[in-house]
Design a protein that fits this description.
72% helix, Substrate Binding Domain Of Dnak, Chain:A, Domain 2, Four-helix bundle copper-binding protein, YHJQ-like
Length: 137
């Protein structure tokens, strides 16, 4: 890896770093909001997803900032988590905080997709999948 002073992120990478850091902040703020609001906003699965999103966004930003060759993997995961988080926020209905979080997650997802190096999930081996399905429950 190059020394820190030699790492010069390009425009897309700089935008992704900023999007990840902003999404991290917004998701943490949204956790606090949701816990105060209660009800469906405070359901464990929604809070867990917001926390997952905040965490992967911070991790992706860190990988990008230090020029890690593995940033494509964290960006791939970040895009997936951001998509799920945005969908979860959208499902909360008309709520300005949920809309703001949804919008930020979608921007971060889009930015991370540019950084993920075209990674695609591996197609499972059909024979292995069948063997797993045949195992007793």
């Amino acid at each position: 890896m190059a020394p820190a002073e030699a790492v010069r992120p390009d425009k897309d990478m700089q935008q992704c770093i900023q999007a990840c850091l902003e999404c991290h902040r917004v998701c943490l703020e949204t956790v606090t909001y949701c816990l105060r609001k209660g009800g469906k906003h405070a359901e464990a699965s929604h809070i867990r997803l917001l926390m997952d999103c905040a965490e992967i966004c911070q991790t992706s930003a860190n990988f990008l900032l230090r020029g890690s060759e593995l940033h494509t993997r964290t960006c791939f995961a970040c895009a997936e988590v951001c998509q799920r988080c945005a969908d979860s926020c959208a499902a909360m209905g008309e709520d300005s905080m949920m809309k703001a979080c949804e919008d930020m997650c979608r921007r971060c997802e889009e930015s991370c997709r540019k950084m993920d190096g075209g990674l695609m999930p591996q197609v499972p081996n059909p024979e292995a999948a069948q063997r797993a399905a045949d195992l007793p429950a």
